[in-house]
Amino acid sequence: MRKITITTLVLFFVIANCVAQQEKGIIGYDNWLDTWTEFQPSKQDYEEPTEILSGTISKDTKLVKRNTYLLVGDVFVTNNATLTIEPGTVIMGDFNSKGSLVISKGSKLLAEGRQTDPIIFTSNRSVKKPGDWGGIFILGDAPLNTYGNESSINFGLKPKSFMDIVYGGEDPEGNSGILKYVRIEFAGNRSKDHGNMSGLTLAGVGSDTTLYNVMVSYCEGHSYNVLGGNLILVKMISFRSNQNDFNFNYGAQCNLVNSLAIRSPYVSSPDGSRALYMSSYDFKEDADPTKAFTNINAENLTLVNVSNDLESDINVGLVQEAIYVGNDVAFVSDRSVISGFSPAVILDEDIKLNDTNLRKIEFIRTYFNNCNGNIFRDGYTNNDDLESWYGSRAFNNVYSKGPDTETFIASNHKKYPDFRLRINRIIASNDYDEDDDD
Question: Which residues are the signal sequence here (predicted)?
Fold first, then answer.
């Protein structure tokens, strides 16, 4: 009996060690994309709207599942009010008025869906397309790196008061509410003078805000636009965004954990779009050098470009880099997967390749798969120095060439694809805290 017990324990530790070595990309013992996501949202039918949301919400308000809501024009939640949304509620952005939802500074959005009953923001058109409506803006009072403590969003929104579109402050732990098990579909309307809105804009949002299991799909702008603030983003999904999947700027301090970006070369913006785009400012003279520059810690990301013919799409220029790192940005990628890009990473041309700068930009235990080149500096075709640096054993990066069908567990599944990494038929997983339904 003792011999059997010892043998069992040894076998357990061997298996556990093998699994631990595969903890790259999105992780979980189960496919956490199941049940609450939707990868074919244009095929979904919802009930006709029964209630209209418009103008200003200045007192605590609750949206209930039994109603379907139509978001007409620019809707502002102001006066420190809280907008609560029941699990399973559907809110439709109006196409004609380009409906948008703005949670002004001091107010909160409590949108806490369930894995089996997500909250859905979508288009009200029968034939839905990217850019049908505006998007969701959450404005907080966490720090920015611009001069002064505040800025404002400029997308042609029409508030009653200018203060309704102001964000930023001095509270890095600010609480703007909860987004959990939420889908945002077909957003990203193009404003006349300010470009496309994003599916979810997080401007000056603090760390006590809960952001967990959010999916943005078919957005004409960025899926997630993070402007300053101090955030923890867990299990975020961006699917077929026209612009950047995750866009960071203005001194954003962010941990992006166990999250997924699925790009398509056939819907990307001609102006350029990446899975991750990180900048500290639009113009350096606008940034206060005494304040923190953008700092992004990315752990267990999967960034994948899904192409029908990757080599051909690269040759005709449809495929870009997965990650763009701007000047004065600190970035760490740990245990992530970057698959099917050209190249994997580009560093801004103003980043000088010296020890100080390269220690701020780390790729650790990262799995580079099927990329046309790995890490380059913008405007330079010779990347020998970067290959030598990041190819060091100290970083423990892995380089591979393999199709999606062999790299991921079930990337071709139409309803619930599984983009967890499969290496030697061992599923990437660990004991990460799974939160099925609370």
Answer: 1-20
The DSSP result for 190-209, as a single string, is: EETTTEE--SEEEES--TTS
- C-alpha gyration radius of the chain: 22
| Burial class, 354, CB count within 10 angstroms (exposed 0-12 / middle 13-18 / buried 19+) | exposed
Q: How far is CA 50 from CA 34, 45, 58, 67, 76, in A?
A: 29, 15, 21, 6, 20
- 185 burial (CB, 10 Å; 0-12 / 13-18 / 19+) is buried
To which residue do tokens 């580079």 refer?
Answer: 368
* Matching residue, tokens 């379907």: 68
Q: Which pLDDT band holds residue 17 (cuts at 50, 70, 90)?
A: very low
Q: Which amino acid is at 274?
A: R
Structure tokens belonging to residue 142: 């966490």
Beta bridge partners, 368, equal 338, 399
Backbone angles phi, psi at 361, to 5 degrees: -125, 105
CA distance 410 to 413: 6
Burial class from Cβ neighbours inside 10 Å (0-12, 13-18, 19+) for residue 235 reads buried
Among candidates 280, 420, 257, 259, which has minimal Cα distance to 350?
A: 280
Query: Above 50 in pLDDT, residue 389?
Result: yes
Please state the separation of Cα 407 from the chain's center in Å.
22
Q: How confident is the model at residue 95 (pLDDT cuts 50, 70, 90)?
A: very high
Measured in whole angstroms, the distance separating CA 118 from the mean position of its chain's CA atoms is 18
